[in-house]
Amino acid sequence: MATQHSRSAARLMMAPAVILLLGWMLVPLTMTLYFSFKRYLPLRGGDQGWVGFENYVRFVTSSAFWPSVQATLIIVGGVLLITVIFGVLLALLLDQPMWGQGIVRILVIAPFFVMPTVSALVWKNMFMDPVNGLLAHLLEFVGLTPVEWLSQAPMTSIIMIVSWQWLPFATLILLTAIQSLDSEQLEAAEMDGAPPLARFGFIILPHLARAITIVVLIQTIFLLAIFAEIFVTTQGSFGTRTLTYLIYQRVLESQNVGLGSAGGIYAVILANIIALFLMRIVGKNLDA
Amino acid sequence: MARSVTTRRKAINTVIAWGIGLLIFFPILWTILTSFKTEATAIADPPVFLFFDWTLENYSVVQERSDYMRFLWNSVIIAGGSTLLGIIIAVPAAWSMAFVPSRRTKDILLWMLSTKMLPAVGVLYPIYLIFIELGLLDTRIGLTIVLMLINLPIIVWMLYTYFREIPGEILEAARMDGATLREEILYVLTPMAVPGIASTILLNFILAWNEAFWTLNLTAAKAAPLTAFIASYSSPEGLFYAKLSAASTMAIAPILILGWFSQKQLVRGLTFGAVK
Amino acid sequence: MHLRTALCAASALALVAGTAAAQTTVTIATVNNGDMIRMQGLTDDFTAQNPDIELEWVTLEENVLRQRVTQDIATKGGQFDVLTIGMYETPIWAAQDWLVPLDDLGADYDADDILPAMRAGLSYNDTLYAAPFYGESSMVMYRTDLMEAAGLEMPDAPTWEFIGEAARAMTDKDNEIYGICLRGKAGWGENMAFITTVANSFGARWFDENWTPQLDSPEWNEAVNFYYNLMQDAGPPGASTNGFNENLALFQQGKCGMWIDATVAASFVTNPSDSTVADKVGFALAPDTGKGKRANWLWAWALAVPAGSDATDAAKKFIAWATSKEYLALVAENEGWANVPPGSRTSLYENPEYAQVPFAQMTLDSINAADPNNPTVDPVPYVGIQYVAIPEWAGIGTLAGQEFSAMLAGQQTPDEALEKAQALVTDEMEAAGY
């Protein structure tokens, strides 16, 4: 009886969140689907009738499509790799005894509080500018030619900027995970003469597996959508046009809502493929 | 003997950690420093670090051009409002997922997260049309709702992971004592989950504060928050590093200060269930 | 008692609402450039004359502004009462009935005083739809001291050949002096504006009379190769990400020998408080190749009222004020003649005081040398010098611009860039139904 009662209460309590999110997902998605089958050009009078799958074919056969998928995956993958590896190392370091740990932690998490637009602007102008940027001055100081970051190493630059923003997040989650590690277990391993690398590989890393999957999952969700960093820095030039940016160009620059909407549907599909893949891993981990 | 070894190790750790910490923090520090330089000093070659004539001129120029307080206030309202609204909706949902789990609970949770993967650019057009229809363009309430919806999955998930760590027996006991569901949530569960709720609030406040796509595209003059404020400084004519730095500092300072003061809270709760 | 309090509160509220209703709010979307910022600072003059109008500003960076304004007008969002738009958008939007005609800005507005080229570019079917706040063409700005040191003399109307020679002679990369700074940052309003004018002067055109893209023509090839080689030999590092602002900063720091860009830049580079080379700048017409077209463009930032604005009359009043002769005089009085928004009115150039500004005559000559209706050597079906006045241009220009930007960054050769651009443009034109 009580179970029955609490079950229906539970359903009732979940309802607002579920209904809101369902609406937030379905309404725009339905409208996007609708537009994607239309020739819809606001600057040429708007709706010009149904066109079937023309927009889908056009979007996917455009020479910009596959490079954009590739760019998306490289950026997401690159940032994940950097933030996870350096996040683990930083978390290990911050877990060690030291003076001023609190202050160091504050310094390390600070980039997470910076708006993406601001961080992109600051990096682009004050650090990566090949003439007036600080990195250019630094390279000149040691006798090297300044690098034209955003044009010659555009992907690296964007990955650097985004990683800088997300490293604190990864570090924090991983740090909390490390701190929860049973120190007796580690000490015992140390007593047994296990070298640091083995201790890391056999005790710490498995312990962190769950935290790492969560970092990967949450960051992927945010990274698939990065926009400001590209808009401010390269505007999609030099092969940094991600799928999100390509859609932006279709909808807002070319004002081709139909074509852009078809792109949006592709993006949803791509996101869901990645999500499915991730959730299988995370789902497994969440059970544990 | 052993003590001196640890001290030495501690010293090494300290040096390395501070070095890395300062390196990571440096871009922010440099921005803040540059905001006190003149435009000419800002691009001086070689760059000057600390020894220059400090000036507040950039701040007064920025303030003169755009009313900072209005943008700040909008940011506070929108980020705060969306977070609180999100919490109110998410607490019951997370509660029922944590304490009355069904076979589908995990699926629902993962589905909720997947709604975050809808590309914002792709749905801007539909959302804009809906906002026109509902008269929500350039209103704080409109933005509050959108940001709440965007962050709701994260809020639900975070709360769910905290609630799950609360032993069910305590709730059983309360129920035995005749507590109603409302009382149970309000007086038993919530106090125990305060650290978790606090860090959820903080994280989502930060995310909402920094959201730059919807806040820029759905506002004009009235509801524009700090993300729109910064959009008018990105590339004006001529030398602008110092002014850009001043505007940037103004845009990130409030959240940076909040983050620093509350970092203990944030850190303690930011586990997403990663820690068992 | 309670009732009375409530009544009082209600009437107070009504009073507040009453005063609010009498005030008309005009929301102005504008770009964050120097002249517009200056105007914001001077609006007390307007609000003193019109106490019933309240102005609200949305100041955005150019790209964001364009995106916001286009989105809003295409969906009839009605967020803005005054839009800052360019010569490209005006006829296209006017054709959609999205803009309010501005043929009635008051008796003392003197619309005939607007420079004919500007007026033509901002009209649709001979009706003015956007009032020019300032107008520009492009010209050569050069360092007189460096030119002298190189032993050369800049003619008033140089050829590209001379520009190439001078740029290479002035370049001294060890001392961070680059002979020429040109736009390379991708965007239809950035590098493509410039490259299109180069192409025009080399006898190239975007489309033939049947709307077939022409980027595979020998003229385009010659123009793009010239631009590419010049930038390789004499351009600054990172040129592929330099737009107007970046080049302005470089020139002001004394790092460029020459800069071919908007005429409005003249007042910035000669302003001693921002520019380290203020007293060493000379001006010349944009170069040509002797084929009959010079590489100068025509552009105006103009103010327009979107159809459906709920404050049309107040918005028109504001536009009439901001683009009036009186406003020019007001700026001159407060900030000096050199800071007056240029290129909009004939009377400004007839003013003897303004004639003393060093770049005034060259600006006027450049504007007069531009003809948006006949932009190219060979006939074309489109209007517009550094743009093509069709809705698809923004998309086309930016896609092609990204290819040329990648070329400048060394990621592809001029031939590859042209080939890709041609393919992209063909795609876009097909998608648009040409």
Shape estimate of chain A: flat
| Computed CA radius of gyration of chain C, to the nearest angstrom | 23 Å
User: CATH H level of the domain at 65-240 in chain A: which superfamily?
Assistant: MetI-like
Low-confidence stretches of chain C: 3-21
Which consecutive residue ranges of chain A, at least 5 long each, have pLDDT under 50? none
**Tell me about the biggest sheet of chain A?**
2 strands, antiparallel
CATH topology description of the domain at 65-240 in chain A: MetI-like fold
- Report the CATH superfamily of the largest domain in chain C: Periplasmic binding protein-like II
Span from first to last CA of chain A?
30 Å
What report would you give on this structure?
The complex is a heterotrimer of chains A (288), B (276) and C (434). In chain A, helix 2 (54-61) packs across helix 13 (257-287) and helix 9 (183-191) runs antiparallel to helix 10. Helix content of chain A is 76%, strand content 3%. Chain A is mainly alpha-helical. Chain A has a domain at 65-240: MetI-like (MetI-like fold). Chain B is built from 13 helices and no strands. Chain B is 75% helix and 0% strand. Chain B has 2 domains: 2-59, no CATH class; 67-269, Orthogonal Bundle (MetI-like fold). Chain C is globular and about 65 Å long. In chain C, 45% of the residues lie in helices and 14% in strands. Chain C folds into 2 domains: 2-135 and 299-355, D-Maltodextrin-Binding Protein, domain 2 (3-Layer(aba) Sandwich); 138-296 and 373-431, Periplasmic binding protein-like II (D-Maltodextrin-Binding Protein, domain 2, 3-Layer(aba) Sandwich). Chain C is built from 19 helices and 10 strands. Classes of the chains: A mainly alpha (288), B mainly alpha (276), C alpha/beta (434). At the A-B interface, helix 1, helix 3, helix 4, helix 5 and helix 6 of A face helix 1, helix 4, helix 5, helix 6 and helix 7 of B.
